[in-house]
Amino acid sequence: MSHLKYSVLFMRDDSDVRRFRISPFWLKAFLYFQGFLLLLSIIGISIGATFWSSNASLRAERKALELRLSEAEVQLERLTNIEKMKAEASAKGAAPAEKSGAAPAEPLAPKTPPVNLRDLFGKVNTAQVTVENFQTRISGNEATVSFELTNVQSVNTLSGLAELSLIRNDGQMLGVEANRADLSFQIQRFKHIRTAFSLPKGVDRRDVFGLRLEIKGSDGKTIFSDTFPLRDPVAS
User: What span, in angstroms and rounded, lies between the C-alpha atoms of 171 and 142?
Assistant: First the structure.
């Protein structure tokens, strides 16, 4: 019984039959080794899938944190500019009183309507579109605006019109005359929008705080609006 062996025959049409004798021990060892390799492969695939899933989750969290950081920076910049606007307004109101040596008997009526911060910085987002890479460049009296508009619900085609308004440092909002064809859209997924316009009369780069973008659907209802401060401090 201890000399029991298995015979393995190899036959070819053009050669003699070859026979190999294999001990049961080595046959079992070979089968066990193949099973071990299979188990090792399954474990390796499982570990790889786990690490890939964890890596994808970390990438998503990093992107979300970067987005929140970017929004916080924009909000901080807005609040800083609001504080500057308030300080400048207070300084202008105090200057006449200091020169005359006495406060005026009656406050002067404002020449411009009061600033409504909700109109300037209020956001609207119905989750139908996203706006990315909003860039404004002012050179002399000409302004160029570009941004990427994405249809979030790409199943249906989305059409409408983008409208731009210019915000001065004193908080006044002015309309701009841009090419309507540049700002109209009908998109399934994505469109890069770019347009140019002249600054209103009497306004130069130093007077401009930022631009307000309003996206309206085909029914005229606002589906997105936001304010984008100018980032370049000096016009080229």
Answer: 21
d(CA 204, CA 200): 8
Residue 161 in tokens: 């019109």
Q: Say which amino acid occupies 147.
A: F
10-residue block means of pLDDT along the chain (236 residues)?
A: 71 78 82 90 90 84 83 81 81 62 53 70 88 90 92 85 90 87 90 92 87 91 91 50
CB 174 within 8 A of CB 200: yes
204-233 burial: b if 16+ Cβ within 10 Å, else e? ebebbbbbbbbbebeeeeebbbbbbbbeee
Positive or negative, the CA dihedral 73, 75, 111, 214 is positive
Distance CA 163, CA 169 (A): 20
pTM of the model as a whole: 0.51
Tell me if 136 sits within 8 A of 205, measured CB to CB. Answer: no
Is there a contact between 6 and 27 (Cβ–Cβ < 8 Å)? yes
Q: What is the secondary structure of 32-67 as a DSSP string?
A: HHHHHHHHHHHHHHHHHHHHHHHHHHHHHHHHHHHH
- Bridge partners for 148 per DSSP: 132, 192
What is d(CA 138, CA 136) in angstroms, rounded to the nearest whole number?
Answer: 7
Burial group, residue 166, by CB count within 10 angstroms (0-12, 13-18, 19+) = buried
